[in-house]
Amino acid sequence: MKVKKLIKYLASLFIGLFIVFILVNQFDEKLNPELKTILDKTYPSPPDNENAFYAYVGFYAAEGENIAEVGKRILDEYDHSTLINKSLVFNDKEKFGVKKLEVNDDGIRICTGKIDGGYCLAKTREEKNKISENLKKNNVLISRYKLLYKFPHFHSKSSFLPETPFLAHNLVLKDIAIKWIGGRRNDAIDLLVEDIIFQRMLACESRVLIHKLIAVAGLSQSYRMLHDFINECYSCVLSDKRIDLVLADLDEEA
Q: What is the pTM of this model?
């Protein structure tokens, strides 16, 4: 099955990227050709209003704030601080203030584990009430994560490594799963396709290796969800006109 193949490919890609991350500059070994293609590909710098990096940096800003504008402010302060004192420790958490949003974590993780076995939907059905209640508590962050899908590019504008919204992505996957098991299958598929398109872009366009690692991990979880959808209703998934796009090999975009 194409999706299972992609999941396995992403697992090997994650391992490959992790090895590169650990061994970078220590050994001069030849890279796997597919991995090299993804790492070597460069993308032109997009206009600021098309770049998700700023919103990524400011993701946990206080409720009601423009996360892209907060991200720009944090990056400006970071660049100014490092210019004055390169050894200065920069704490971005302080830049959000006391109203910085945090994920209300219920400890439940879906779309992890073995490829076979309904690892996304089975876990959601088992913990449906608890997950539904937790989603209400994280409504702002879930809505905020979906805003990231509007950005067509991700281009790191500095060496700054922000706190990543990885847990928020798992919240979105739970939201998608709840929609599916609640009978809103078209809504679930539409949102999952949006998520996969964004995660693929993030994995391909990220210039910082740790961002690629995080994106590949998130993308693998999204494909696990798609695998569950196909197992339960193959025709439902095929009804989305963009399904061929998300099923293309990742290195075709690189």
A: 0.81
